[in-house]
Amino acid sequence: MNPRQQRFVEEYLVDLNGYRAAVRAGYEEKWARHIASRLLRRPEIAQVVEKAKEERRERLRITADRVLAELARIAFADIGRLVVRDAKGLALKDTSALSPDDLAAIAAIEVSADGKGRVRLHSKLRALDAIARHLGLFEKGAAEKRDTTPEHDEDRLPAREILRRKLAQLAGEEVPDDAPPLGEGE
C-alpha cells in the first residue's frame, strides 16, 4: 500500500464512510466514491481494514451479545418505570432510583429555563428493528422457521379455521385441537 492508501484506511476506520475517507485522504472529491469503492475491493486493503476492525472489537470487548443486550435495554424499556405522576403532571423519577437498564434507554434529559423538563428515549422502533434483523425475522420464510409453543400453534392454522374455532367457543362448543380443518370430513 502506498502512503495515500494507508491514509485512506486510517480515515475509513474513523467513520466507515468510504467517500469521506477518500476526500480526507486527499483524493479528488468528484472521484472519491469511485476510488473508495475500488480501494475497498482490493484484497490487501480489505484485509487491513478487517484486521483493524477486529483489533478494535477485541480492544473494546464489543461482542454481538453486548450489542444485542444494549439494543434489548432500549427496545424493551418501559416509560412507566421512568416517570411518576405528581401535582404538576409527570416527572422523571430520581435517576439514582432508576436501574441501569432504564438509564440506558434515556437519550436525553432536557430542562428549560422555566424548570420544565423533558425526557427523550432512544428509538424503541429502531432497536426492535435491529434486533429483528439480527434474528432474521424479516427474512422470507422466517415465520415457518421460528419455534412455536403450543399456545401459538394457532398461528399456523388458516384464517377460516381460526374463525370456526372462535365461533364454536363463543357458542359454548368445544373444538378439539385435533379436529379436522373446515372442509375436511364435514
Model description:
With 186 residues, this protein is mainly alpha-helical. The chain has three domains: 3-60, Terminase, small subunit, N-terminal DNA-binding domain, HTH motif (Arc Repressor Mutant, subunit A); 63-145, no CATH class; 147-186, no CATH class. The chain has nine helices and four strands. A hairpin with a 5-residue loop joins strand 3 (106-111) and strand 4 (117-121). Helix 1 crosses helix 4 (43-60) and helix 5 (64-75) crosses helix 7 (124-135). The protein is flat, with a radius of gyration of 27 Å. The relative contact order is 0.06.
Number of domains: 3
Strand content: 5-15%
| Biggest sheet, spatial arrangement of strands | 1-2
Task: Name the helicity range.
Answer: 40-55%
Secondary structure layout plus pairing:
Blueprint: H1 3-15, H2 18-24, H3 32-41, H4 43-60, H5 64-75, E1 83-86, E2 89-92, H6 100-104, E3 106-111, E4 117-121, H7 124-135, H8 142-145, H9 159-170
Helix pairs in contact: 1-2, 1-4, 2-3, 5-7
Provide a concise account of the structure shown.
The chain is 50% helix and 10% strand.
Please describe the structure with a list of short key phrases separated by commas or semicolons:
186 residues, Arc Repressor Mutant, subunit A, 3 domains, two-stranded antiparallel ribbon, 50% helix
